[in-house]
């Protein structure tokens, strides 16, 4: 392998920079960038920034003012709030005060209209320090001297994207000031490229670049160039980033490729003089709201639209409020909400410009040709249910020349109603009917949503099939129906069916089943659930029944009130503030309630990623059913890094007995939307057989030491380990869903053995990823249960590093490869625990030795010999420090001076000791640090060889090394 692939710099960084050069980025060396930004604490290329500010802001910008802008930018705090201010500067939304004119001017940092007026530069090995920590980013990109994009690279040989992400998390944690200005980061090993917004480090916020297509780009050259071209980067920075405020917390997101693609197509359609309609089908949970918001922003900001009107339409009060809150959370101002039919008519008649939100029902009865402008753009949410019948006629009659873009999260159904949606919005895009499509299968593949699985409840709990067919599924009025209120009216007339659903004995037995299932299958994972009842009365029945089997505060009823509600319904009605509190608490894993009992409210538009299971006891079909079950398809990752394996539906009605009846869509459109849990059992059986053959059989019958050696040797190659990791993650995800099903009992011993192999490999080859937090929750419980003490023990021994270590290693029965990992882990833990700064360089050498071993550049025996030599060096250093009786920081400087072969290291150490004594806070105080650096250089310089310039450079370099090591040791 090593003969084919070189190191990270050769295989990834250099090709990346080369491809950037092809698309217009000028390369600057590390040293040149360091000089231009004024040292490791600077972020902006000063001269370039000042020159470009004057060029892009003629008439009022001079050198002095441009430098003041630079200083104010570099003083921004290392927080997401500070980063938002920097983004507003890039967007051209900030002003600068011009003293000579005594007024504010809007500042322009980028020229988005004429890209060639910007200067694009790239550099590598970008070191930055905040005085406490120093980090080094692999590749950074500047526009007009302003840092915008940071790329962390990993080699194609053994490089892992999750390792790159771990490094970026460390950068954010240790040097948040670095990310005061950078807007986007990327992770790549050249074969694939991932990107995200800075200050967003959740895996679900990191997306694979696809250049607007549905599939990854196989050709890495095309992949990199498509992402790095200025025509991609500038809109990514200014148009496709959103800052949103949720629960008083500011968050930052960047759009996914399919969202950017859709926004682009909406803008193209909006400028098309002939085509005035378009349908965006982006499956439920794929970020449709953000796509709408950004599309609206872009239309409003486009000068050629000449101060347009954007009208965003929804079909429910709840969704109107939610849309307004979403818009407001992104900082959009000047939003007008149509309060009534009369108010909407007045807004259109008086030619209101800007952004208007309205319910489509407010178009009822409006006169024709109320506003005939053609720069009105209508964005219709849930288009499959919003524009049917007379409301669509009134809407399009009132604004006849507008451009209409419909958004839907469900595909067009095969009924006449569905074809009506196609005719309204899809007529300009025959034959498929979509302006843009992002299917269910694509969203699962991308990780935008998770798979859905269903299980039919026991037959004795399900309603009578014949009654379900006759009173619901076979009725023409429910086929293709997209409005849950219309389905509710059908259920009100289906007396026999609703009586069956609300039978007290059945409700009690289902409540008992739900309580037991939740306790055993859902709660151990840390997730939450919905119980969907037939109507509001059924919700109250279920609440009373559940309280008999679960603590009362586990569940809460959420439904809309009505003025004629009886006392029993009013008892469970929440006030607006109570409902707001419940919604917020439900999204928090550890907070109560854990189960929400609903019937209509929250089945659309409510996102709670921690929601995992839906207990479904309400007849639904088609769009309504698809929207409801999509509540459990949101990805989720807990604080330990565990991800939600899927969404689960327990069907008490029997809708999924005949899936094709419940979901009357084209099979290609809903392929993989929801699958039977029994298929997971079949898949688990197949995987366990594979695991037994490939990973257990080769090591069976061996003793513990020999099995460990064989496993570590057999899976030494990165590709082989990755194959096993992927296999095990798939297996454990299914185990999480199925456990504690009795079906698993016959597999437990082998599953435990595979888990032990996983633990061994993680601990040996990937120690940065803690095994426990990497294990799924039920697997962790199983492993702990099967260990004798109840605690999971390390798979590898850890030795105390002292004078007896070498002898213990020699006497150990472990194989050479085990000893390599034992020693490496022992040295690293000893250095981390004892925090002896003079050993930090040894720790870095250990990392390098292990990396070369993993990359097959050295043999096991050579690696073991090098590590044993480091043990000796550690013991010698500790013994020498004890003899010299220097403090650890002074001894660290002493060792560096001694290793540089400078005369009188003891005398120099005494001077340094005095310097540290007079500057006790130098690692956190800039003034004291400058004094320490000055004194160190003065002590070292007289004995440096070479010309005066060369000697000075060497002295500064050694000073930087000493200071850097000591600061890392103090952090």
Could you characterize what this model shows?
The chain has 971 residues and is α/β, with parallel strands linked by helices. The chain folds into 6 domains: 235 residues, no CATH class; 192 residues, Rossmann fold (3-Layer(aba) Sandwich); 221 residues, P-loop containing nucleotide triphosphate hydrolases (Rossmann fold, 3-Layer(aba) Sandwich); 107 residues; 80 residues; 83 residues, no CATH class. The chain is built from 39 helices and 25 strands. The protein has a 7-stranded mixed β-sheet with strand order 1-4-5-6-7-8-9, sandwiched between helices. A 7-stranded parallel β-sheet has the order 14-15-13-16-17-12-18, with helices on both faces. Helix 6 links the parallel strand 6 and strand 7. Helix 26 crosses helix 29 and helix 28 crosses helix 29. The N terminus is likely disordered.
């Amino acid at each position: 392998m090593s003969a084919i692939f070189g190191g990270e710099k050769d295989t990834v960084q250099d090709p990346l920079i080369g491809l950037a050069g092809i698309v217009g980025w000028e390369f600057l060396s590390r040293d040149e960038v360091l000089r231009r930004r004024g040292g490791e604490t600077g972020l902006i290329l000063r001269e370039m920034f000042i020159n470009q500010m004057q060029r892009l802001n003629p008439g009022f910008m001079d050198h002095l003012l441009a430098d003041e802008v630079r200083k104010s930018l570099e003083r921004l705090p290392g927080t997401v709030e500070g980063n938002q201010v920097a983004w507003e500067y890039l967007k051209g939304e900030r002003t600068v005060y011009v003293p000579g004119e005594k007024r504010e001017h809007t500042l322009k940092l980028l020229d988005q209209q004429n890209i060639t007026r910007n200067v694009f530069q790239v550099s590598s090995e970008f070191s930055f320090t905040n005085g406490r920590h120093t980090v080094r980013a692999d590749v950074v990109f500047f526009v007009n001297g302003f840092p915008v994009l940071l790329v962390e690279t990993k080699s194609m040989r053994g490089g892992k994207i999750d390792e790159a992400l771990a490094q970026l998390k460390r950068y954010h944690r240790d040097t948040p000031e670095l990310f005061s200005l950078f807007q986007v980061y990327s992770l790549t090993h050249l074969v694939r490229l991932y990107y995200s917004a800075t200050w967003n480090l959740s895996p679900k916020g990191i997306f694979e670049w696809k250049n607007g297509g549905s599939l990854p780009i196989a050709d890495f050259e095309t992949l990199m160039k498509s992402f790095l071209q200025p025509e991609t980067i500038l809109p990514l920075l200014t148009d496709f980033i959103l800052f949103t405020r949720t629960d008083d917390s500011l968050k930052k997101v960047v759009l996914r490729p399919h969202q950017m693609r859709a926004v682009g197509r909406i803008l193209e359609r909006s400028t098309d003089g002939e085509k005035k309609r378009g349908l965006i089908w982006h499956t439920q949970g794929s970020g449709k709201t953000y796509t709408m918001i950004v599309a609206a922003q872009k239309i409003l900001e486009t000068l050629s639209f000449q101060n347009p009107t954007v009208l965003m339409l929804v079909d429910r009060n709840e969704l109107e409020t939610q849309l307004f809150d979403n818009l407001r959370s992104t900082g959009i101002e000047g939003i007008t909400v149509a309060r009534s039919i009369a108010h909407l008519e007045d807004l259109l008649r008086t030619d209101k410009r800007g952004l208007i939100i309205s319910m489509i029902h407010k178009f009822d009865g409006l006169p024709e040709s109320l506003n005939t402008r053609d720069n009105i753009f209508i964005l219709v949410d849930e288009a499959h249910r919003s524009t049917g019948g007379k409301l669509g006629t009134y809407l399009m009659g009132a604004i006849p020349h507008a451009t209409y873009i419909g958004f839907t999260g469900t595909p067009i159904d095969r009924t006449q109603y569905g074809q009506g949606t196609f005719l309204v919005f899809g007529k300009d895009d025959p034959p498929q009917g979509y302006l843009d499509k992002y299917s269910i299968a694509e969203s699962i593949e991308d990780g935008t949503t998770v798979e859905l699985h269903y299980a039919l409840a026991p037959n004795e709990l399900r309603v009578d099939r014949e009654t379900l067919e006759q009173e619901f599924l076979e009725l023409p009025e429910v086929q293709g129906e997209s409005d849950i209120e219309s389905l509710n009216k059908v259920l009100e007339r289906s007396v026999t069916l609703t009586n069956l659903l609300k039978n007290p004995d059945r409700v009690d037995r289902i409540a008992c089943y739900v309580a037991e299932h939740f306790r055993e299958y859902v709660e151990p994972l840390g997730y939450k659930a919905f119980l969907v009842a037939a109507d509001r009365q059924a919700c109250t029945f279920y609440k009373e029944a559940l309280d008999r089997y679960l603590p009362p505060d586990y569940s809460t009823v959420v439904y809309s009130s009505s003025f004629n509600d009886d006392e029993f319904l009013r008892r469970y009605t929440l006030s607006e503030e109570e409902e707001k509190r419940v919604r917020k608490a439900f999204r928090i894993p550890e907070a109560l309630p854990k189960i929400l009992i609903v019937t209509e409210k929250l089945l659309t538009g409510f996102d709670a990623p921690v929601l995992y299971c839906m207990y479904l006891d309400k007849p639904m079909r088609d769009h309504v059913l698809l929207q409801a079950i999509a509540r459990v398809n949101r990805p989720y990752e807990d604080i330990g890094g565990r991800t939600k394996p899927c969404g689960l539906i327990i069907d008490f009605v029997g809708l999924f007995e005949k899936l094709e009846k419940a979901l009357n869509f084209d099979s290609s459109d809903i392929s993989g939307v929801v699958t039977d849990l029994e298929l997971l059992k079949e898949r688990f059986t197949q995987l366990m057989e594979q695991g037994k053959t490939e990973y257990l059989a080769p090591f069976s019958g061996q003793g513990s030491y020999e099995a460990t050696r064989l496993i570590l040797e057999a899976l030494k190659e990165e590709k082989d380990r990755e194959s096993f990791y992927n296999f095990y993650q798939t297996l454990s995800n299914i185990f999480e869903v199925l456990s504690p099903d009795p079906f698993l009992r016959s597999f437990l011993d082998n599953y435990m053995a595979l888990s032990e192999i996983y633990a061994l490999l993680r601990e040996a080859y990937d120690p940065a990823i803690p095994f426990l937090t990497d294990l799924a929750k039920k697997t962790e419980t199983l492993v702990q249960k099967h260990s004798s003490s109840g605690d999971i023990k390390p798979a590898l021994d850890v030795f105390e590093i002292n004078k007896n270590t070498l002898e213990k290693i020699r006497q150990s029965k472990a194989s050479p490869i085990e000893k390599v990992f034992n020693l490496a882990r022992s040295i690293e833990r000893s250095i981390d625990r004892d925090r002896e700064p003079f050993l930090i360089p040894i720790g870095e050498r250990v990392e390098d030795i292990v990396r070369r071993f993993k990359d097959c550049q050295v043999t096991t025996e050579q690696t073991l010999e090098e590590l044993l030599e480091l043990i000796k060096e550690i013991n010698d250093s500790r013994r020498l420090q004890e003899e010299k009786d220097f403090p650890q920081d002074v001894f660290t400087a002493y060792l560096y001076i001694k290793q540089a072969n400078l005369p009188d290291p003891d005398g120099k150490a005494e001077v340094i000791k005095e310097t540290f004594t007079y500057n006790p806070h130098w690692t956190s105080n800039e003034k004291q640090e400058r004094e320490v650096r000055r004194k160190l250089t003065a002590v070292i310089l007289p004995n440096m060889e070479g010309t005066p310039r060369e000697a000075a450079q060497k002295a500064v370099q050694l000073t930087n090394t000493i200071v850097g090591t000591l600061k890392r040791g103090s952090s």
